[in-house]
Amino acid sequence: MIETLLTTRDLPGSALAQLLETRDASLAQRLKDCARKRCLEVKGPQVLIRALIEWSNVCRNDCLYCGIRRSRTDVPRYSLSPDQIFECCDKAWRDGVQTFVLQGGENPAAALGLVPVVREIHKRWPQAAITLSLGELPFETYAALKEAGANRYLLRHETANPKHYVSIHPEGMRLETRLACIRELKRLGYETGMGMMVGSPGQTTEDLVQDLRLMQEMGPHMIGMGPFIPQDNTPLESYPAGSAETTLRLIAILRLMFPEANIPATTALATLLPGGKLSGIQAGANVIMNVYTPQAERKKYDLYKGKSDV
Ligand code: SAH
After folding, report:
1. Among candidates 231, 219, 248, which has minimal Cα distance to 32?
2. What is the CA radius of gyration of the chain?
3. Which of 48, 68, 234, 272 is the least buried, fewest Cβ under 10 Å from its Cβ?
4. What is the per-residue pLDDT for 307?
């Protein structure tokens, strides 16, 4: 099975489900080892480090899982000033980190306001890659940010099952809208990232297989996945967290399906599993995102409980 996945980059849905669900620990280990080996062959021995700058937690959206959802009134809101953002970039650059990831709540007006900030970052650090993760925005804003110097955009699809998508998002949010944004980002020439939360309430193994199929259809350059982790004072606060092991198996499967993709070992994985970033690398991930948000604001970017800040 693993051999077929390695050579054909594909498997029937039933075999993918089996790899995700198997209790055979040695099969799961072979899957991860094979993915790690493939990663070394294709991407080389380097682990790429990204500087995550959580620039604002102001959000118009009300995603049921998210700790910075609009309805969560117990979270103090902040946005970094342009100078604070430049300071984060400067610190990262001095550490030898050459990709800056600006992430934040969905706030179209503020995103448009980032255009001159992105332009300035591009001017000061012309060698750096600028990645954005700002949610669903008007297509003109995506274009303006690209023109200002942004190269990459992360927009997780969260789940490929439209009904499941509706069940974990507020009224009016639809998977189709999200996918239209992802297609537009690709069309504009962004390196584009997708991905899902693993084990969000109501998600089935079939849904995860559908996630894999969707990504095969869309061809993302980057794939970010983390386990769902419940956050207090959100509608999903009492649901169990997703599985770190399933997340690791998905990393491995995706490395074999998309040998060239950049796949991070995410903070959510590290939050749930001690040493999770290393485990992610050992399962085929090749990217680590280090938090460069100023210490005073970190606690306010409170996506899920116990969020690790390394
Ligand atoms: N506003 C941006 C960034 C969202 S935060 C956007 O819409 O893309 C980045 C990611 O954190 C989300 O895409 C989601 O997958 C993840 N996330 C949010 N809440 C979470 C939770 N409770 N557990 C695990 N991951 C979560």
Report:
1. 248
2. 18
3. 48
4. 83
| Full 3-state SS string of 100-149 | EEEEECCCHHHHHHCHHHHHHHHHHCCCCEEEEECCCCCHHHHHHHHHHC
Query: How far are the Cα atoms of 127, 137, 159, 230 from residue 238, in angstroms, in the given order?
Result: 45, 31, 20, 7
Does ligand 1 lie within 6 Å of residue 268's CB atom? yes
Of ligand 1's atoms, which has the minimum distance to the CA of residue 227?
24
Task: pLDDT band for 303, please (50, 70, 90 cuts).
Answer: very high
Domains of the chain, by residue range, sit at: 44-298
Q: What are the backbone angles phi and psi of residue 191, rounded to the nearest 5°?
A: -70, 125
Q: What is the dihedral of CA 120, 112, 156, 121, to 10 degrees?
A: 0
pTM here is 0.97
Q: Is 56 in the pocket of ligand 1 (CB under 6 A)?
A: no
1 CA distance to ligand 1 middle (Å)? 32
Region 182-192: mean pLDDT is 98
Architecture of domain 44-298: Alpha-Beta Barrel (3.20)
In the predicted structure, residue 309 carries a pLDDT above the cut 90? no
Q: Tell me how far the alpha carbon of residue 197 lies from the centroid of ligand 1, in angstroms.
A: 8
Rounded to the nearest angstrom, the distance between the alpha carbon of 105 and the centre of ligand 1 is: 9
CA 134 to chain centre: 12
Task: Report the nearest atom of ligand 1 relative to the CA of 234.
Answer: 22
Cα-to-chain-centroid distance, residue 198: 11
Token pair, residue 217, equals: 């259809």
Looking up tokens 């706030």 gives 107
